[in-house]
Design a protein that fits this description.
With 525 residues, this protein is α+β, with helices and mostly antiparallel strands. It folds into 2 domains: 290 residues, Beta-galactosidase, Chain A, domain 5 (Distorted Sandwich), CATH 2.70.98.90; 220 residues, no CATH class. Helices cover 36% and strands 27% of the residues. It contains 12 helices and 21 strands. Strands 1, 7, 8, 9, 10, 12, 13, 15, 16 and 19 form a 10-stranded antiparallel sheet that branches. Helix 7 packs antiparallel against helix 8. The radius of gyration is 31 Å and the shape is elongated.
Length: 525
């Protein structure tokens, strides 16, 4: 817990002990009939319909031209009373339980709305002016000015809180992928932390609210969409509030500002930045780069691979016009780059097959002494320059590319909705049909069948296992395709397509090498 966090909590406790926390009644002015105002960002990336009642949004649309689903994406949850860009004098509880809001006088100029009203806090008046500016790339700037027109101090103190902003951009309405993983994170000035809003516990269900006092900016995101709330001031308590959990989880971020005084004839100004749009590093990564970093020490290695993969994907999709064909080309390119190692690996496997008679003789002679058998086996490998683990190296080198491609496909807003053959969306599993809640995915089955074919042919070439260790290795090799089936079942179909193409080329490569009688030197017995 930071010093700032402790300080804020101690301040709240001292106010409670000293009796400074007291209830004040707030009455908002009503300027007239309510009206809806439509405002768009200059680049048309974001369109909002904002009501003069409270300045709350009634419709939020993201321009969908950046992905394969060209229609606008609705981000407004109309099933809940909470709304984006809401504001109330008082606590977050007041915002969620009390529907009283001012009716603002609104002036609009292109992408800017100025909302003006007032409220009575007890017997004192406070003037409210909110300016909302929609900028390019889904950004919103809000400025709040609170003015005290009276000749005495105006105290805004509601259980230690002065006022609260709300920012409910409903990501769950936009998602089409059941594999999407909602994320609730905040930056405390040093590192990115998780807000455990629905983590639950060993003894109970999900926590409905989390209160955080050391937050510079906060986010709600899934695989494709992202919202950011960034107060440009200190002395805040950020609230993550769960409205609904599960696949359609709805989580609101509230920004509470600590209790304050406004001097006579003076005003206070507060600025906030918002972002709502695709989870696109090129748009928001310059400021919020930590959202796109890999965990721990892997970032230095995997981030450049991810960037290179993203560039390659984007370039090839622009050239070919097909995301599926692009993934096939990337699979072939990676295979070609690793071909020298793959050939060496295949030769090593062929040597292991040719060495099998000698290994059987060693088993017959030294089987009663496992330690001696191991020493003699290693001496044989060394003398024949054979490596039993040689087949693993190309696979190990592909792992960083695999993880980078998984991340690119899982979070690729550009490829969202891109189809190939029977696959409707390469960023989601290739579900052909549903049996109840079970999704039948064809591509992982094809991939597994190819892997089983490879294993069967390899075991056939290796001959019958003569000792327990060889039998165990054969059994494990049959289980591996089934493990891969389990791992790949709900992965993006584009990633399964990539791996399937890799398997096809591995089979072809192995067949060519095994058909060449001169590939390995003849081993005398």
């Amino acid at each position: 817990m930071s010093i700032k966090n402790i300080s804020i909590k101690l301040s709240l406790l001292l106010m409670l002990i000293s009796g400074q926390v007291f209830a004040q009644e707030v009455t908002y002015s009503k300027a007239g009939d309510t009206k809806e105002y439509l405002v768009s960002s200059p680049d048309n990336s974001l369109k909002l319909s904002i009501s003069s009642l409270g300045g709350r949004t009634s419709k939020i649309d993201i321009n969908g031209s950046w992905n394969r689903i060209s229609n606008d994406i609705d981000m407004q949850d109309r099933s809940n009373q909470l709304s984006a860009l809401d504001f109330v004098i008082g606590t977050y509880t007041e915002l969620t339980t009390n529907s009283n809001r001012p009716v603002y006088q609104v002036s609009q100029k292109e992408n800017t709305l100025v909302l003006s009203s007032s409220a009575m806090v007890g017997t004192q008046r406070v003037n409210i002016q909110r300016t909302l500016v929609l900028l390019d790339n889904g950004r919103i700037k809000e400025q709040l000015v609170l003015s005290n027109p009276s000749g005495t101090d105006l105290k805004l103190d509601f259980e230690g809180i002065a006022f609260t902003f709300s920012s409910l951009f409903d990501i769950s309405r936009a998602t089409t992928n059941n594999s999407n993983i909602p994320e609730y994170k905040y930056f405390n000035g040093e590192k990115l932390e998780k807000a455990n809003i629905n983590g639950g516990s060993w003894f109970g269900g999900p926590s409905p609210s989390v209160f955080l006092s050391d937050v510079q900016w906060a986010t709600v995101a899934d695989n494709f969409f992202l919202t950011i709330v960034h107060p440009q001031f200190d002395n805040t308590v950020v609230v993550y509030h769960g409205l609904e959990f599960g696949p359609k989880s709805r989580v609101n971020i509230g920004v509470q500002v600590l209790a304050t005084n406004i001097a006579p004839k003076q005003s206070l100004t507060y600025d906030l930045d918002y972002y709502v749009g695709p989870r696109h590093e090129q748009i928001v990564g310059a400021i919020y780069e930590k959202l796109f970093a890999w965990p721990f020490v892997f970032n230095w290695m995997l981030k450049p691979i991810e960037n290179g993969t993203t560039w390659m994907m984007t370039t090839l999709v622009d050239k070919t016009g097909s995301a599926g064909l692009t993934l096939i080309l990337i699979a072939i390119l990676v295979k070609l780059l690793l071909m020298p190692l793959s050939i060496k690996s295949a030769i090593s496997m062929k040597k292991m097959k040719d060495l099998q008679p000698k290994l059987n003789k060693l088993q017959e002679k030294w089987g009663h002494d496992p330690q001696a058998l191991q020493v003699k086996t290693m001496e044989l490998y060394k003398s024949e320059k054979a490596n039993p683990l040689g087949g693993c190296l190309p696979l190990l080198l592909q792992i960083p590319v695999f993880f980078a491609l998984f991340r690119v496909l899982s979070r690729s807003v550009e490829l969202r909705g891109a189809g190939f053959l029977w696959i409707s969306d390469l960023t989601t599993p290739d579900s052909l049909f549903m049996i109840g809640t079970f999704s039948f995915n064809l591509l992982p089955l094809i991939m597994t069948a190819l892997q089983l074919v490879t294993v069967v042919r390899q075991q056939g070439r290796m001959g019958t296992a003569q000792n327990d260790m060889q039998k165990q290795m054969q059994t494990q090799s049959y289980f591996m395709p089934l493990i891969f089936l389990f791992l790949f079942w709900n992965m993006p179909s584009g990633l399964v397509l990539y791996w399937t193409v890799q398997n096809i080329f591995s089979i072809m490569e192995q067949e060519v090498i095994n058909s060449d009688k001169g590939t390995t030197k003849k081993i005398s017995y």
